[in-house]
Amino acid sequence: MFIYVVLLHRYCLFVNIIGFVYSGFQAFDLAYHLVTGMHVVSDYLRYHFNFSMDQILAYLLMSASSSAATRVDDWILNWGQDQFTLLASASVGMSFLAFLAFAISSLISGYNICNRDST
């Protein structure tokens, strides 16, 4: 049982790391654009890349958060609350917040992909 809980939390952690790296890439792309006036990824691909990555990460974050949340709740019901469950609950909460950020970002990138200049 403990191994299963640890694997779920590793999944949650790795999905959050992937989201962090992608967000860092987006910040780098914005900084690069502000300095040079160009983007790292071409215009046509950038809209599709942003939309698809936002969608993928939002779904992965929701999957990781919900699976980890059920295991933490089960752990608390069976063995009580301790330091591990407090940290795991905080991790799940931060993962849900990251999901909300990617969901909003997905809406914005969906708007951008539909309203971009076709020239």
TrEMBL record:
Membrane-protein topology: Multi-pass membrane protein
CC per GO annotation: plasma membrane
Domain Casparian strip membrane protein: 10-101
Keyword Nucleotide-binding: no
Coiled-coil intervals: none
InterPro entries (UniProt xref): CASP_dom (IPR006702)
Keywords: Cell membrane, Membrane, Transmembrane, Transmembrane helix
Subcellular location: Cell membrane
Pfam family, one: CASP_dom
Transmembrane feature ranges: 12-35, 84-108
Subunit structure: Homodimer and heterodimers.
Similarity comment: family membership: Belongs to the Casparian strip membrane proteins (CASP) family.
Protein name: CASP-like protein
Native species: Forsythia ovata
